[in-house]
């Protein structure tokens, strides 16, 4: 729709939320990451091969890489005229201008001791565990472990080869391939064939064993320490039912596989990656406080990982939808109805500060709990206005039409206006663009 709700945005809008990340002059179509990890010294050496496409004439281009040193770089198989590293920016000047519309390849050899990357909302990315490591990059941590064009709208396919010490398992996005043991190391291969945003790429390393299953035609693997096999099996036993329910409500699960990694360490929060989620051992529990988060991270596979925001200001399209999925799972599993959850959280929000604009909360508040709850309440208010059948038809159309794509809030508003008789300006203006909390009905 075009009118008072239309938000004009350009490629630089992400600079406000995650400053100095990404280069809009080119897109990466595929990443091939060949990594060797030495846990005892927290060292990483890698060769990243990026298949790219120039969106404009490129006299130079920039990649993101934090605290890791580049030892060799080639553009289309030849050394560039120059490359420089400053802070987390790797600036490459090829020997000749790369014309717009041209495909080109960048190969980067790099090494170092990865560290979490600081940002406006704290540190993200590579993180050492007591015995292993995790990567949780949302929203700015991807450059902590590989060179990338770190924009959420630049989605690419990936291949991973990860070499770790014997006795450890490496888990990455996508479908597992060959496992090759050689001396004191083992190499794990994974391939993600659906387009993925850079911050959703991940690698997890630990002493893990797999718990496997299927649901709705999806291969499921839950990785956990051997000593926690029983408690994790019980805590995550409802994942197949969650996938079945969400596939019915939201449309088919969007990827080939789904994995959950449960670390031996306790983690402050869980986090989703593309076709994979990460949990601490403190969430290996049957209580609702844990089950709602297991459902939340799974729902992100539809809303956040397949259908991905184009601009960080639209984070409610991820977190509001996943929070509402918690309430739907509560209803599906015999707990409080979604309406009861909505009424309870609406009352709580009404007692909090009324200074947040959902469609543009600002970098300081992009992960504020009010974004999650007000986003979910927006969806419930929409459900009450439309009725169940049109509402869930809308959610399925949203996930199908934008499968593996990049979206904005305007895209969602446009779809609602297209498929229903709702006055989008009246309804969404109150929920998305005003600070005062509207009534649910």
Summary keywords:
single chain, 441 residues, alpha+beta, Immunoglobulin-like, Neutral Protease, domain 2, 7-stranded mixed beta sheet, 5-stranded mixed beta sheet, 10 helices, 27% helix, 32% strand, globular
Short description:
The chain is α+β, with helices and mostly antiparallel strands. Helices cover 27% and strands 32% of the residues.
Q: Can you characterise this structure?
A:
Residues 242-431 form the Peptidase M1 membrane alanine aminopeptidase domain. There is one protein chain. By secondary structure, the protein is an alpha+beta fold. It has three domains: 12-204, Immunoglobulin-like, CATH 2.60.40; 208-301, Neutral Protease, domain 2, CATH 1.10.390; 308-433, Neutral Protease, domain 2 (Orthogonal Bundle), CATH 1.10.390. The chain contains ten helices and 22 strands. It has helices at 14-17, 229-235, 239-250, 288-299, 316-332, 338-350, 369-386, 388-401, 409-419, 424-433; strands at 26-38, 43-54, 61-64, 69-75, 82-86, 89-93, 103-112, 117-119, 122-129, 132-136, 156-165, 169-172, 175-182, 185-196, 203-206, 209-215, 218-224, 257-262, 271-273, 276-279, 308-309, 406-407. It has a seven-stranded mixed beta sheet, with no helix packed on it. Strands 16-17-18-20-19 form a five-stranded mixed beta sheet, covered by helices on one side. A hairpin with a 2-residue loop joins β19 and β20 (276-279).
Beta content: 25-35%
Task: Domain count, please report it.
Answer: 3
CATH homology-level superfamily of the largest domain: tricorn interacting facor f3 domain
Please tally the helical runs, counting DSSP H or I stretches of 4 or more residues.
10
Give the overall silhouette. globular
The first-level CATH class of the largest domain is given as Mainly Beta
What structural category characterises the helix and strand content?
A: alpha+beta
Distance from N terminus to C terminus (CA atoms, Å) equals 24 Å
- The residue ranges in which pLDDT falls below 50 over 5 or more consecutive positions are 1-11
What helical percentage do the residues reach? 25-40%
Q: Can you count the beta strands?
A: 22
CATH architecture of the largest domain: Sandwich
Spatial arrangement of strands, main beta sheet: 4-7-2-1-11-14-13
CATH fold title of the largest domain = Immunoglobulin-like
**Major beta-sheet overview:** 7 strands, mixed
Mean pLDDT: 96
Radius of gyration over all CA atoms, rounded: 22 Å
């Amino acid at each position: 729709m075009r009118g008072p709700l239309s938000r004009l945005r350009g490629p630089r809008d992400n600079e406000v939320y995650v400053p100095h990340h990404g280069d809009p002059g080119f897109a990466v179509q595929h990443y091939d990451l060949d990594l060797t990890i030495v846990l005892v010294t927290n060292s990483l050496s890698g060769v990243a091969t990026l298949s790219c496409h120039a969106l404009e004439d490129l006299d130079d281009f920039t990649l993101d890489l934090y605290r890791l040193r580049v030892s060799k770089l080639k553009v289309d198989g030849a050394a560039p005229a120059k490359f420089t590293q400053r802070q987390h920016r790797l600036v490459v000047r090829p020997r000749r201008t790369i014309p717009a519309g041209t495909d080109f390849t960048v190969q980067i050899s790099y090494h170092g001791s990865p560290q979490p990357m600081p940002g406006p909302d704290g540190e993200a990315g590579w993180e050492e565990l007591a015995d292993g490591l995790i990567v949780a990059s949302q929203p700015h941590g991807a450059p902590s472990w590989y060179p990338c064009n770190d924009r959420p709208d630049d989605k690419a396919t990936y291949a991973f080869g990860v070499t770790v010490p014997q006795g450890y398992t490496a888990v990455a996005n996508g479908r597992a391939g060959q496992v090759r043991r050689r001396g004191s190391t083992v190499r794990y291969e994974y391939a993600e064939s659906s387009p993925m945003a850079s911050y959703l790429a991940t690698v997890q390393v630990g002493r893990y064993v797999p718990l496997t299953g299927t649901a709705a035609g999806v291969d499921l693997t839950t990785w956990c320490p051997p000593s926690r096999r029983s408690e994790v099996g019980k805590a995550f036993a409802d994942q197949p039912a969650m996938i079945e329910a969400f596939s019915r409500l939201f449309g088919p699960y969007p990827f080939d596989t789904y994995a959950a990694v449960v670390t031996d360490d306790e983690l402050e929060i869980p986090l989703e990656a593309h076709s994979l989620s990460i949990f601490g051992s403190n969430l290996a529990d049957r209580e609702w406080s844990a089950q709602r988060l297991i459902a939340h991270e799974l729902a992100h596979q539809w809303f956040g990982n397949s259908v991905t925001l184009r601009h960080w200001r639209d984070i409610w399209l991820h977190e509001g939808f996943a929070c509402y999925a918690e309430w739907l799972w509560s209803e599906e599993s015999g707990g409080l109805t979604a309406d009861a959850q909505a009424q309870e959280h609406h009352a709580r929000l009404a007692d909090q500060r009324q200074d947040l604009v959902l469609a543009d909360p600002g970098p300081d508040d992009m992960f504020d709990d009010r974004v999650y709850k007000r986003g979910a309440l927006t969806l419930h208010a929409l459900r009450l206005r439309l009725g169940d059948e049109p509402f869930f038809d809308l959610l399925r159309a949203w996930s199908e039409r934008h499968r593996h794509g990049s979206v904005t809030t305007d895209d969602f508003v446009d779809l609602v206006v297209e498929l229903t008789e709702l006055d989008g300006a009246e309804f969404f203006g109150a929920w998305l663009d005003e600070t005062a909390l509207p009534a649910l009905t």
